[in-house]
Design a protein that fits this description.
single chain; alpha+beta; NADH Oxidase; 4-stranded antiparallel beta sheet; binds flavin mononucleotide
Length: about 350
């Protein structure tokens, strides 16, 4: 079967994508996951180059003092952008950290026309719309043994590796999760930050109560982050205790570039898993404090520096049946600006 659909050349193909095309791609990319749905990114298009910046005003200093997760989130939106451009007939050429004097300037993106759009790219773009973070107890993912090598192969194009934890690791991870929660029980600054960003009904950012589990259901996911009690009640067919597969994404180092690139890998894994019909939940409380991060490193010694744990499983509900977490309007994160002299 030919899985490539030939694209008729569009009028803007020679010069580059129009601002409308770029804006639409950015709007789709902004469905990317981010720590507490902070969406810590800004985009500027100068007519030729699209620039991605981090938004330091959206750094969570108590949860993420070094900005590691801010960069993971921005990496995820960058990878989502590549997919969003691909289905519009454009390949992105990305230069990461193009300006050594500005660490908030994360990427400069130029474009070349794509000769065709693959079915896989269509599926990934559709997965961007369908994916949601699922915090409910998940059943073991079907055909997982076939999926693991696909993830390993997928990440060959990314600067992060995946380590698949055995179910024996659950006890130690659950203990690391409890230890993290216990250390934070009296951390009033952390708790204030968590309460600011999660558990109420914000319109465009933060994690609303509608997508957080009730306290009873949270107890059925011993590896989950402790959030304020929410309103999501698990389906009757959900397992009593979470039995998802666990994937650790790790990097060679812990520098800004490692984190940005790991965020790109996170996006790739989440979208691939969504295409395969799995539910996913990103977990980072396990890598925020040195003690719990050391537990993850011990369980996945070959992963390098552990950045993220992902739960992957079978959900009782279709992802699109679950409420979706809102995003800021694209025009509050995307701007046009005259072209600068710098060439990337
Ligand atoms: C770097 C990063 C860290 C995250 N950490 C957690 C976490 O510890 N627990 C959790 O339930 N979700 C976590 N998430 C998921 C976000 O809460 C979620 O992406 C955001 O609320 C938007 O919702 P959506 O993914 O359903 O679109 C994380 C996402 C990212 C990118």
């Amino acid at each position: 079967m030919n899985t490539n659909s030939l694209m008729p050349p569009a009028p803007d193909m020679i010069a580059g994508p129009t601002p409308e095309t770029v804006r639409a791609a950015v709007a789709l990319a902004c469905r990317a996951p981010s720590l507490h749905n902070t969406q810590p990114w800004k985009w500027v298009f100068d007519g030729v180059v699209l620039h991605l910046y981090s938004d330091p005003a959206r750094l969570l200093p108590e949860t993420d003092p070094f900005g590691r997760q801010l960069l993971l989130s921005c990496g995820a939106v960058l990878d989502h952008l590549k997919v969003a451009l691909a289905v519009r007939g454009w390949r992105a050429l990305v230069v990461r950290f193009p300006d050594p004097t500005r660490l908030d300037h994360l990427a400069a993106i130029t474009f070349t026309p794509a000769r065709f759009v693959t079915m896989a790219e269509h599926f990934l773009a559709e997965a961007i719309e369908r994916r949601r973070t699922d915090r409910s107890p998940l059943s073991p993912p079907a055909d997982w043994a076939d999926f693991e090598p696909r993830i390993t192969e997928l990440l060959e194009d990314y600067a992060a590796t995946a380590t698949f934890l055995t179910q024996d690791s659950r006890g130690d991870l659950a203990q690391a999760s409890r230890m993290t929660a216990a250390r934070r029980r009296y951390d009033s600054m952390y708790r204030a930050e968590l309460r600011w960003w999660t558990g109420h009904s914000t319109q465009v950012d933060g994690v609303p109560a509608s997508v957080l589990a009730t306290s009873g259901d949270s107890a059925r996911v011993p590896l989950g982050r402790t959030f304020p009690a929410g309103q999501t009640i698990s389906a009757e067919s959900a397992p009593e205790i979470d039995a998802s597969a666990l994937v650790v994404l790790g990097t060679e180092g812990d520098h800004p570039l490692d984190c940005l690139r790991c965020g790109e890998a996170l996006s790739a894994v989440l979208l691939e898993a969504t295409v395969a019909g799995y539910a996913t939940c990103t977990l980072t409380h396990l890598t925020e404090l040195p003690a719990s991060r050391a537990v993850v490193a011990q369980l996945a010694p070959e992963c390098g520096v552990p950045q993220v744990v992902i739960r992957v499983g079978a959900a009782a509900n279709e992802p699109s049946d679950r409420p979706r977490t809102a995003r800021r309007d694209v025009d509050s994160v995307f701007a046009m600006r005259p072209q600068t002299a710098r060439a990337y």
